[in-house]
Design goal:
The chain is α/β, with parallel strands linked by helices and 398 residues long. The protein is built from six helices and 16 strands. The longest helix has 18 residues.
């Protein structure tokens, strides 16, 4: 992707031989540089047209990129992190990321679509059904990047609440920013919790669609989630059937201790913003290097309570038939899940569906055969190195 069109690549780092490498691209306006829209090959007149974004995502798909993220915000872009500005020499404005992703879904075949949404001023129920609908529209290629509202000015669009106003001193250090916004991160974790419960509020076979008997759904297989938290309560169930993935991928951007805590509690994949070393008495500076997801950063799949490797969700291909993890009820609880750091991981095992042998073994039909990770509430783990190609097939991409 050329520099004027994309913010940069997200590179996943892994150790070990044979571990797949995943690549993603973050799309935001005309590009990362504030003056990218003025480059010779830029197309500022097309920024607010779906065709512009369709071309970018098609280019990423041809380049075998695994997924793209689409940025979004509740206020106009600003050169200042914590307040608005009146500049007219930079790109301002944008399209709704979830709606844009839904427009791109039928134009693509295997690339993952991960829109950003604000979770501070948007109802959790609306967010959950929006991402679930995107997963249906893309046939299992949706992701979600929940984002808090760091600017106090965003609250004025709604008039229902106020949020902390960051100062010039705060924005000199990511840790100071995170400390001031800690309550918003706690609320965001509850939003993700509610979304995950709503995605599981329909059982897989809740839709009967039997015209002869006049039964469209089995009402007994739609379940309220009864979430009660300090910020909101949600009864449920969802109005959208269970997503094809069961649980769409949740990603987050982290740059300080509080966002890391949020990521460990709520996310499947973490984008790490690298910063330069900070001398005593001086503020840290963000590096211009691409975001990186080091091995092991993905942590534990929060929706299922089982270890998930960084390759267990493959946005570069739609899940094969039957790949959706089996529905199981959420445990009754009114408080957020126990953080991973204090939760013992359940026992897991991985076997090849065709032979029962461990994946990667030389048993006939097992090497690169379809594999299933089994554990309490565990999803089926599909990865580029675990496909239906058979023992002698070379690695392929969709």
């Amino acid at each position: 992707m050329s520099g004027d069109k994309a913010t940069g690549g997200i590179v996943t780092e892994h150790s070990g031989i044979g571990t797949p490498l995943h690549l993603a691209v973050a799309l935001d306006g005309a590009g990362w540089h504030p003056a990218a829209w003025r480059a010779a090959d830029a197309r500022p007149g097309d920024l607010f047209t779906p065709g512009y974004w369709a071309e970018l995502v098609a280019e990423a798909e041809r380049g075998l990129v695994d997924f793209v993220t689409l940025e979004d915000a509740l206020g106009l872009q600003s050169a200042a992190f914590h307040r608005t500005d009146d500049r007219t020499d930079q790109v301002r404005g944008g399209l709704d990321a979830v709606l844009l992703a839904a427009r791109l879904a039928p134009l693509t075949t295997h690339i993952g679509l991960v829109p950003t949404t604000n979770v501070t001023h948007t109802e959790p129920f609306h967010l959950a059904i929006g991402i679930a609908t995107l997963d249906h529209a893309s046939r299992g290629r949706a992701g979600w990047r929940p984002q808090i509202s760091a600017r106090a000015a965003d609250a004025t669009h709604f008039g229902r609440r106020t949020t902390p106003q960051l100062t010039d001193d705060d924005v000199r250090d990511p840790e100071l920013i995170a400390a001031r916004l800690r309550p918003l991160f706690a609320e965001a974790a509850d939003v993700v919790e509610v979304a995950r419960r709503l995605w599981d509020s329909w059982q897989d076979d809740a839709e009967i669609r039997d015209a002869a008997t006049g039964r469209f759904i089995d009402r007994d297989k739609l379940h309220p989630i009864d979430f009660e938290g300090p910020h909101f309560s949600v009864r449920g169930p969802s109005i959208t059937p269970r997503p094809p993935q069961g649980q769409p991928l949740v990603a987050s951007l982290a740059h300080a201790s509080v966002p890391y805590e949020f990521a460990a509690r709520a996310s499947d994949v973490v984008f790490v913003t690298r910063t330069t070393a900070r001398a005593p008495g001086r503020s840290s500076r963000r590096s211009t290097r691409p975001w990186r997801v080091p091995a092991g950063t993905c942590g534990t799949g929060p929706s299922r309570g089982s270890p998930i490797s960084s390759s267990s969700w493959t946005p570069s291909r739609a899940p094969p038939p039957g790949a959706r993890p089996a529905w199981t009820p959420w445990p009754a609880r009114s408080s957020p899940r126990t953080p991973r750091s204090s939760r013992a991981p359940p026992a897991t095992s991985q076997t090849c569906c065709s032979t029962g042998a461990p994946p990667g073994s030389t048993a006939s039909g097992c090497v690169r055969a379809r594999c299933r990770t089994t554990s309490p509430r565990s999803p089926v783990a599909w990865s580029p190195s675990c496909t239906d190609a058979g023992p002698s097939a070379p690695p392929t991409r969709p």
